[in-house]
Amino acid sequence: MHGVTDEPRPGAAPGALADRVEAIRRAHLPDSRVGVWDVAVEENGRPRVIGWTTAAGAIDELRRAAREAGAEAVIAALPDPTLGAAILGTAHRALAHVRREPRHGSELVSQVVLGEEVVCLRSRDDWLQVQCADGYTGWVHRGSLVRSAPREERAALGARLAAGQPPEGTLVLIARSPVARAGPAPDAPPACDLVHGARVLTAGETEGGAIPVLLPDGLVGWIDAGAAVPWESLPDRFPPTGEAILAHAALFLGVPYLWGGASEKGYDCSGIVQRIYGLHGIMLPRDSDQQEAAGEPVTPGDDWSAVQDGDLAFFHDSPGGRATHVGILARGGRLLHASTTRNGVAWDALAPADPDRSEFGALLASRLSAVRRVLA
Question: Which CATH architecture has domain 170-234?
């Protein structure tokens, strides 16, 4: 543990101190998914406030609260200095799994595709706690990432990642389930599996319809020249319109449902929304209840006539509860979404007059919590 230790002085009881620490957490990091708050009040012997957090702005408050309570404070900001300068992690195979805890059997909460970058926060055995570009935190096996020192300061790095901006010269894979091969020939052995949205760097000139690309771990592979476009050209390929977004998402009809999935290997409901909208230049949070805060509210009307292509529909498990499901709307109230009931990406009709509305569609409509417009 690296941090400044404040000498204690007599003050409030440890229980009151714990309440104050919790109030500081709520003020600085109300959503534990988008940061780390590993801070505790130890009450055995001399009380102390100890731990790590990504909420750097809370550290002075924590030290002040400890001092006023007569407790010691040992608080440090993440990233952990013992990681050194190499705090930038890049996924170097098709997918890096982000798990809730540092073990293979832990819940899959998200995925990072090849070439996407994360900030490494600290290590535990064979695992790295990371913060993804969307702010989401979790644990990734260190074998899934290539670590390096960022070229920019920490604040600039965070801003670049939040904007979805990769390093200069990046190509983005636009094909579904492409493969990088060991040579330009179409029958050359596979060198690396790739996914839609993966990021690689140009490594040379086109040869025989294939282009060499540099993978994050230094391996050079060959992909079809039409399988990727420069990052700067994404708006031409994927414009930020509802019609284009629906056509794009429909390419993945039939892809199986996977909790925490963020690629065509398996999507969850918010994963496909975040991935598709991100490629169209609309950065959204990871989970459905977080996404529900984006954009402007829309009242769909009984016949769903107020809905536009590309609006997002959110659903709850119980009235007044947080959103637990999201899908992409088309005019008239048709919903494209990744669903466990549909066992993958599928269409459902929500409007009562739609002849294709099923019992499941009616159930979804009854659980609608909001419609949001995230497109201009």
Answer: Roll (2.30)
